[in-house]
Design goal:
Shape: rod-shaped
Number of domains: 3
Helix content: 40-55%
Number of strands: 15
Strand content: 15-25%
CATH topology of the largest domain: Elongation Factor Tu (Ef-tu), domain 3
Strand order of the largest sheet: 3-11-14-13-12-15
CATH superfamily of the largest domain: Efflux pump adaptor protein, beta barrel domain
CATH class of the largest domain: Mainly Beta
Structural class: alpha+beta
Distance between the termini: 98 Å
Largest sheet: 6 strands, antiparallel, barrel
Number of helices: 5
């Protein structure tokens, strides 16, 4: 009797366990069905309604959905200052537009570098002035030399014409010398020596004139080289000026291109740690989407896309498809979404950058329609035929 009671109790217990397992299994199936319905509804895209508002719409199987980040088309640039240098002043403010080459900030040592540049430029100005004065003096000397040479030429011609007269005097002197005595002979010899001296001076003058005429081209070429525009002294001054200008540039931070200041990362009086400000050209905006790697073969440049910025849809098209697969940098806030993905960056050029320019670096949702461009082109070709 006791054994039968024990066996009956065991059977009852097993039945209770079986019924409890089925109960909990049913509860689990109910929760799983509810989660699956919510997950499917969350994955449905939103379409644009009236007034630019987005409303829920059925998922189109051909669309590629991805997270994206709003950025300037030319990129978000972090402008830096020389680390360790003290920032004397910042010349721009947040949201201020800048032009290429505009001074953004002044670093320590700027006044001294500016004074060194002014000194180098003044030294070159002085050298150029001295060179100009020397050229003017040289021009006067050459003009004087040319005029004197003309007079010397005329004098040399007269000396040459008197050479024949001196030859006659020499002949007469030789004839009269043996016949004269006393004072007459002395006077004759004195006059002959005077004539001979004058003749030698004339010959020397002619010789010096000839030598000067031969050396004038070489001398003037040397003078022109010494006072030329590319003299070594001017090159040295140019190098000093360039060095001073480079030193001044080290104390200034200038805008690499035109755009708008988005954020100041440092303040006047601080010692720079590197980053100074963030800037970008907001006239053209893009959305850089992280597309799952298996969807990339379906995409082509020119495919239309829609980017959701807050509650508005901004249209655009694919302008660049990357070729590097990497880990996603953007993370969906939905905890049920897959967090670790392998993606490829796809750039979407936005047709209207005005709204996106207000939310640089914002995380948005993008929907791309693969093949829509090809279908549109085919339809246009058929219509043309």
């Amino acid at each position: 009797m006791e054994e039968r009671a024990t066996s009956r109790s065991t059977s009852v217990a097993r039945a209770i366990v079986r019924s409890g397992a089925w109960f909990w299994l049913s509860i689990a199936l109910i929760f799983f069905s509810a989660w699956l319905n919510n997950h499917v509804s969350a994955l449905q895209p939103e379409t644009t309604g009236s007034g630019g508002q987005l409303s829920k719409a059925p998922v189109q199987p051909g669309d590629v959905h991805a997270l994206a980040r709003l950025e300037p088309a030319s990129g978000l640039l972090i402008v830096g200052a020389r680390p360790g240098a003290r920032i004397e002043r910042i010349e721009v403010g947040p949201a201020e537009g800048v032009t290429p080459g505009q001074v953004l900030a002044i670093l320590e040592g700027h006044d001294q570098a500016q004074a060194q540049l002014a000194l180098a430029e003044a030294q070159k100005t002085r050298a150029l002035h001295q060179r100009s004065v020397q050229k003017q003096k040289l021009a006067l000397e050459r003009e004087q030399f040319d005029k004197l040479q003309k007079s010397k030429l005329e004098s040399a011609m007269r000396v040459f014409s008197s050479k024949q007269r001196f030859d006659e005097i020499t002949k007469l002197y030789k004839e009269l010398q043996p016949t004269l005595q006393g004072k007459d002979r002395f006077d004759l010899e004195l006059r002959y020596f005077e004539a001979e001296t004058q003749n030698l001076r004339g010959e020397l003058e002619i010789k010096s004139y000839q030598v000067a005429q031969e050396l004038v081209p070489r001398q003037r070429k040397l003078e022109d080289e010494e006072l030329g525009e590319k003299g070594p002294d001017l090159d040295l001054l140019d190098r000093q000026t360039d060095l001073a200008r480079a030193g001044l540039a080290q104390t200034e931070v200038r805008a690499p291109f035109g755009g708008r200041v988005l954020e100041l990362m440092a303040h006047a009086g601080e010692v720079s740690s590197g980053p100074l400000l963030a800037m970008g050209d907001l006239s053209a905006m893009v959305a850089t989407a992280e597309v799952f790697q298996t969807d990339i073969p379906r995409l082509r440049t020119g495919d239309p896309a829609t980017v959701r910025v807050l509650d508005q849809a901004v249209t655009g098209k694919v302008t660049l498809i990357g070729s590097i697969v990497g880990k996603n940098q953007l993370t969906n806030l939905d905890p049920r979404a897959l967090q670790d993905r392998r993606v490829v960056k796809v750039t979407i050029g936005l047709d209207n950058p005005a709204l996106a320019a207000r939310f640089v670096n914002m995380e948005v949702e993008a929907a791309i329609k693969p093949g829509a461009r090809s279908a549109a082109e085919s339809a246009a070709g058929a219509a043309g035929r």
